[in-house]
Amino acid sequence: MKFFIDTANLAQIKEAQELGVLDGVTTNPSLMAKEGITGRNNILKHYVDICNIVDGDVSAEVISTDLKGMIKEGEELAELHEQIVVKVPMIKDGIKAIKYFSDKGIRTNCTLVFSCGQALLAAKAGAAYVSPFIGRLDDISTDGLNLISEIRHIYDNYEFETQILAASVRHTMHVIDCAKIGADVMTGPLSAIEGLLKHPLTDSGLAKFLEDYQKGN
Ligand code: G3P
Fold first, then answer.
1. Which pTM value belongs to this model?
2. SS3 string of the chain?
């Protein structure tokens, strides 16, 4: 499973990259605003800065909600850097835009996916990634991981090449469960990735090894 980090914070992206396990980055307008990145030019520059830190795919989201606007924005984003994947919302014109981009060889990430039907449409249109938001489904007492499972089943039935990018991952158990189910990618905060490191027996075992080494030296 690929690990993407879901942030526009350059320090956190660098930290994840230095860990050596980072495969890409996802962003969205809310994450950009959280970092105080506003204005079209600053946002475009920020995407390039992110691409220069990581080796893998970087999702950059369109703001337009009409086909013409999404195409114009998406083409501009795709021109920025070869690592850019154009993030397009799951709406009717979004599906048309994904098909357009796919025919032109521009890779897309279909975002705001909350159902199998939406995931099926995104795959049919040729999205490179589909982003089901598992945390937000959990928030409304619906099983987000079950959606990942069902999409996995559907995509495997027809050998769709669209990668399942489990998004809105909130914590470490989400990461582990996504791996069990067979998500192609998970995107989450740095804390969810670093949580994988932790086990009290590792800490106590290491402390004992170091203590015994000191005794013998
Ligand atoms: O990747 C989508 C993600 O940014 C949404 O996460 O935590 O706002 O639901 P969250």
1. 0.96
2. CEEEEECCCHHHHHHHHHHCCCCEEECCHHHHHHCCCCCHHHHHHHHHHHHHHCCCEEEEECCCCCHHHHHHHHHHHHHHCCCEEEEEECCHHHHHHHHHHHHCCCCEEEEEECCHHHHHHHHHHCCCEEEEEHHHHHHCCCCHHHHHHHHHHHHHHHCCCCEEEEECCCCHHHHHHHHHHCCCEEEECHHHHHHHHCCHHHHHHHHHHHHHHHHCC
